[in-house]
Design goal:
This is ABC-2 type transport system ATP-binding protein. Residues 2-227 form the ABC transporter domain. Keywords: ATP-binding, Nucleotide-binding, Transport. The protein has helices at residues 40-47, 90-100, 106-114, 130-142, 160-175, 187-193, 211-216, 230-241, 261-271, 285-293, and strands at residues 2-11, 14-24, 28-33, 55-60, 75-78, 148-152, 179-183, 196-201, 204-210, 222-226, 246-250, 253-257, 277-281. The chain folds into two domains: 2-216, Rossmann fold (3-Layer(aba) Sandwich); 222-281, 2-Layer Sandwich (Alpha-Beta Plaits), CATH 3.30.70.980. The chain is built from ten helices and 13 strands. It starts with a strand and ends in a 10-residue tail after the last helix. The chain is elongated and about 75 Å long. The structure holds adenosine-5'-triphosphate. Residues 11, 14, 16, 34, 36-42 line the site of adenosine-5'-triphosphate.
């Protein structure tokens, strides 16, 4: 489990992370989202003790990362896939990491195989493609068989097969009861991978909720109801207008915002209104995310 309490980091006049209170729980994938410059990498660096907080604390299972005697066996992380010694082979890179944390060399071969790098274990990291570097970074995160895993943009540079592989890996790590905290800008991928979402903007917490709740909360999630009889259409429309955020008529359909589908069905039943169709049109995570972060985008372009 990762716990942040009032976590704050300022760089000169910039509040990169601003009083963040958060618990990242085990047994699920938590997606960490936010526009460029929102403070995601800075937060992850503070969890790993690579940056000192200006105020507040970041704890892993109740202790700062640096206080764990064998940190790689507690937390595995992929922060910057390019942070590799270019002349070291993949295997030697991992052996050096293993030695520094008392991890047996047998784990090195096991994780190289897990990430599909067995054919290139003796190739120098400097000759790796972006995707191979990502895989090696993920191997490093898995090396100590840690309970907590953090990945900053893990699918960056991966081909579709690699993207799917990362998705399945994250899901299986969470299913084993581990804490999986992963940042990404790929909303369609996060919708498939994450159970819980943490959204930040300008260093502050915007949302911390299950994926389904974030999507349902979007004003773009609507209920569509088809009422062929014109009188019934008008009766239901009037009743819904009293409690919905918005009701639009499109041909014989009513498009309703802000009322759950169950309530629309119950109201129709109460009023004796005959329906030919009743369903929810869910927003995509991307739509929900854009709405949540509209006020926090620092580097946007006018549209
Ligand atoms: N070492 C540093 N010195 C000064 N400012 C920094 C430093 N590191 C980050 N910042 C600033 O802190 C803010 C948050 O940056 P951070 O990299 O954490 O954001 P991010 O959410 O990871 O962004 P991205 O999605 O673009 O990777 C930005 O305004 C950034 O310019």
């Amino acid at each position: 489990m990762i716990t942040l309490e009032g976590l704050t980091k300022t760089y000169g006049g910039t509040r990169a992370v601003d009083s963040l209170d958060l618990t990242v729980a085990p047994g699920r994938v938590t997606g960490f989202l936010g526009p460029n410059g929102a403070g995601k990498s800075t937060t992850m660096r503070m969890i790993l003790g690579l940056d000192a907080p200006t105020a507040g604390v970041a704890l892993v299972d109740g202790r700062p990362y640096a206080d764990w005697p064998a940190p790689l066996s507690k937390v595995g992380a992929l922060l910057d896939a390019k942070a590799l010694h270019p002349r070291r082979t993949a295997r030697n890179h991992l052996i050096a990491m293993a030695h520094s944390n008392g991890i047996p060399v047998s784990r090195v071969d096991a994780v190289l195989s897990t990430v599909g790098l067995d054919p290139v274990t003796r190739k120098r990291a400097g000759q790796f493609s972006l995707g191979m570097g990502q895989r090696l970074g993920i191997a490093g995160a898995l090396l100590g068989d840690p309970e907590v895993l953090m990945f900053d943009e893990p699918v960056n540079g991966l081909d579709p097969d690699g993207v799917r592989w990362v998705r399945e890996l994250m899901r299986s790590l969470a299913a084993e009861g581990r804490t999986v905290f992963v940042s990404s800008h790929l909303m369609s991928e996060m919708q498939l991978t994450a159970d819980q979402l943490v959204v930040i903007g300008r260093g502050r917490l915007i949302a911390d909720a299950p994926v389904a709740e974030v999507i349902a909360g979007s004003s773009r999630s609507t209920v569509a109801v088809r009422v062929p009889d014109r009188r019934h259409h008008a009766v239901l429309r009037e009743r819904l207008t009293a409690e919905a955020e918005r009701v639009d008529s499109v041909d014989d359909r009513l498009i309703v915002t802000g009322v759950p589908v169950e309530r629309v069905g119950d109201l129709a039943h109460e009023l004796g209104v005959r329906l030919h169709e009743l369903h929810t049109d869910q927003a995509s995570l991307e739509e929900a995310y854009m709405e949540l972060t509209a006020d926090s985008v620092e580097y946007g372009v006018a549209s």
